């Protein structure tokens, strides 16, 4: 499969070579480069393949319908282009079979959406991208967001309705630009979504991502960051509320392949109900020959009932001695006794103290989102899920 | 008129699932409203354990004795019931509760203790005034409970709660530790306001005599080896200031 791609080699570690890291083994636009997963592979072992409804083997009956609507302020350019447009597929290589299949299949569903924030432009309002599944079947999409040098913008991706959907999203944050993305997975209860979000962060550029996953039967979202200049800064914030029978999987990869780059990953989730399953994989690579990397990743899970399952796996691979800071933490547990004690010691009854602490757990992260109307909406939806739990 | 009685209290700290250690070895103390009792003693003597055990902290368990507030058995009450009955503990290390805003927390707490929700406008005025009295910037109301506060800011907020909740008995656990002189004066003034306006009975736990220059105690007790080793008037504090705790440490170690 020929496709424009800049700066990335396909199969960067060929036969006979020892891969630098297993996190970075190969990439390809050709689905045939990736065997059909069996569930025994490291990157698939937490995902219930049966519930992917064929997204991983590539049946591509393509009988689903997902409509994408984009609302943007005048200074931001929105285009629909074919896959051979040089801006499409320029910043990434699919790194698993579903991503490659989505690349292969999306032209059957129409064109790729390209959103451009022109050089030096500060978008006056957020860009809203709303993907709505209207017919439940498999469907594929592709989105490119380019923040040109010294520009700044906030983009809100919203997934809703019912679908079996795989998509690739490219965020290209050019030198000195600042891009904030809120990705809200608010699917109907029967939806399946496998998404790859590839961020490329330029020199002194800033990328902030907020991933909020509440809906769906199965959501598997893989945000990745690589740097193409020094001084880049990436923050990935995540929030999920995994209810009865839901599978929410977030797999972040930060590749500190340039010097003096910074990353923060903080994902927080709550689980309640029988067979609620949350997975967080946090991969960080600090590349050979780099210096001045500052990286920290953190996952917290609040377990509200019995019968839930959390898999939380931080992986940190360092190939240099010149690191400014690198750390990871993971903690899963029930409500903190000491938090409850403090509130109760001020007269607040136990059940109310519990409610305050649970809401606080979410509120803390939601408060970081700068779009006020989104903060309120997300909190309202969390409230709704909490009400069904309590 | 409130009478708060601690009678023969023994308590363990729970270290692990199986492990525990007895810290309090028979404490007797009676505090009436309007009285201020300073509890002084060397580190590790059990002063903080006494405070936490009375408040119902999950890491401590009272194994013998009783604690009565106007004849009611405090130990049969849940933590929140104790607070609603009129007991207050200002903690040495106030807890950070991320995401719960200070104003939301204070309103919930005042509502619970007073038994009805205060009128929004009246409460926000009351809150502003109380914060002003403790030189707390109004921006703190929007922040998470104790989240990222400095040691001094946390202590001011403990006294803010003392003033808002108007308890019958207040246990102040090393409220003076980590405060510079200016902050100590502000915090002491808050304690004195609570004493004057609400006739609160105070158990003032401290390692140093410094705060006693601002909050004058009626009684001073020396705590050592898990019990009260000596009691007296304010002059006992002066003696401790010059002699130190050495003779009590020796006595405690000899048990």
Automatic annotation (TrEMBL), chain A:
Gene: sufD
Location of the SUF system FeS cluster assembly SufBD core domain: 138-361
Record's protein name: Fe-S cluster assembly protein SufD
One BP annotation, GO: iron-sulfur cluster assembly
Species per Swiss-Prot/TrEMBL record: Streptomonospora mangrovi
A family per Pfam: SUFBD_core
Family as reported in the entry's similarity comment: Belongs to the iron-sulfur cluster assembly SufBD family.
TrEMBL record, chain B:
Keyword Transport: no
Record SMART domains: AAA
PROSITE patterns named among the record's database cross-references: ABC_TRANSPORTER_2
GO molecular-function terms, A-Z: ATP binding; ATP hydrolysis activity
ABC transporter domain span: 9-250
Chain coiled-coil ranges: none
Top-level taxon of origin: Bacteria
Pfam short name (any one): ABC_tran
The keyword Protease appears for this protein: no
Keyword annotations: ATP-binding, Nucleotide-binding
Similarity section: Belongs to the ABC transporter superfamily. Ycf16 family.
Family annotation (PANTHER family): ABC TRANSPORTER I FAMILY MEMBER 6, CHLOROPLASTIC
Name of the protein in its database record: Fe-S cluster assembly ATPase SufC
Lineage: Bacteria, Bacillati, Actinomycetota, Actinomycetes, Streptosporangiales
Name of the gene encoding the protein in the UniProt record: sufC
């Amino acid at each position: 499969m020929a496709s424009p791609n800049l700066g990335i080699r396909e199969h960067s570690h060929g036969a006979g070579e020892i891969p630098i890291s297993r996190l970075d083994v190969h990439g390809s636009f050709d689905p045939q480069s990736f065997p059909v997963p069996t569930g025994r592979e490291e990157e698939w072992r937490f995902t219930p393949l049966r519930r992917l409804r064929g997204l991983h083997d590539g049946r591509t009956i393509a009988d689903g319908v997902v409509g994408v609507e984009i609302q943007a302020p005048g200074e931001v350019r929105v285009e629909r282009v074919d896959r051979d447009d040089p801006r499409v597929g320029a910043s990434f290589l699919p790194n698993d079979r579903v991503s490659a299949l989505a690349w292969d299949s999306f032209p059957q569903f129409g064109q790729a959406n390209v959103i451009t924030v022109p050089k030096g432009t500060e978008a006056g309002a957020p860009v809203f991208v709303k993907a709505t599944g209207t017919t439940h079947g498999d469907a594929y999409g592709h989105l490119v967001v380019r923040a040109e040098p010294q520009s700044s913008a906030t983009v809100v991706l919203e997934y809703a309705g019912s679908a079996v959907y795989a998509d690739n999203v490219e965020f290209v944050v050019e030198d000195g630009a600042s891009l904030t993305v809120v990705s809200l997975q608010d699917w109907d209860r029967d939806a399946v979504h496998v998404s790859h979000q590839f961020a490329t962060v330029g020199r002194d550029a800033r990328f902030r991502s907020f991933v909020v996953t509440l809906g769906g039967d199965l959501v598997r979202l893989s945000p990745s960051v690589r740097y193409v200049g020094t001084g880049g800064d990436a923050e990935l914030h995540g929030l999920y509320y995994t209810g009865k029978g839901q599978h929410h999987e977030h797999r972040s990869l930060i590749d500190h392949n340039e010097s003096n780059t910074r990353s923060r990953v903080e994902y927080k989730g709550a689980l309640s109900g029988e067979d609620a399953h949350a997975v967080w994989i946090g991969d960080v690579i600090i590349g050979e020959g780099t210096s001045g990397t500052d990286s920290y990743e953190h996952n917290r899970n609040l377990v509200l009932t019995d019968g839930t399952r959390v898999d939380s796996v931080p992986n940190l691979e360092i190939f240099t001695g010149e690191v400014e800071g690198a750390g990871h933490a993971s903690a899963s547990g029930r409500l903190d006794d000491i938090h409850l004690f403090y509130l109760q010691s001020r007269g607040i009854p136990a059940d109310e103290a519990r409610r305050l602490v649970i809401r606080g757990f979410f509120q803390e992260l939601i408060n970081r989102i700068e779009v006020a109307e989104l903060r309120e909406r997300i909190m309202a939806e969390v409230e709704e899920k909490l009400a069904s739990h309590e | 008129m409130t009478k708060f009685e601690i009678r023969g209290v023994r308590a363990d700290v729970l270290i692990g699932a199986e492990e525990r250690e007895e810290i309090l070895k028979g404490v007797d103390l009676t505090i009436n409203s309007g009285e201020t009792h300073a509890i002084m003693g060397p580190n590790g003597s059990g002063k903080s354990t006494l405070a936490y055990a009375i408040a119902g902290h999950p890491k401590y368990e009272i194994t013998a004795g009783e604690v009565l507030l106007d004849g009611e058995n405090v130990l049969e009450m849940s933590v929140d019931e104790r607070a609603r009955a009129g007991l207050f503990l200002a903690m040495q290390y106030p807890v950070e509760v991320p995401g719960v805003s200070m104003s939301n927390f204070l309103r919930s707490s005042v509502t619970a203790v007073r038994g009805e929700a205060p009128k929004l406008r009246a409460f926000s005025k009351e809150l502003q005034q109380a914060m002003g009295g403790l030189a707390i910037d109004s921006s703190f109301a929007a922040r998470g409970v104790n989240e990222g506060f400095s040691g001094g800011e946390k202590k001011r907020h403990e006294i803010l709660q003392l003033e808002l909740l108007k308890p019958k008995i207040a246990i102040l656990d090393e409220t003076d530790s980590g405060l510079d002189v200016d902050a100590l004066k502000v915090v002491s003034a808050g304690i004195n306001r609570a004493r004057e306006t609400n006739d609160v009975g105070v158990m003032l736990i401290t390692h140093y005599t410094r705060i006693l220059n601002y909050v004058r105690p009626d009684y001073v007790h020396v705590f050592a080896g898990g019990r009260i080793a000596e009691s007296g008037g304010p002059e006992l504090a002066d003696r401790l200031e010059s002699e130190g705790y050495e003779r009590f440490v020796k006595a405690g170690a000899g048990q």
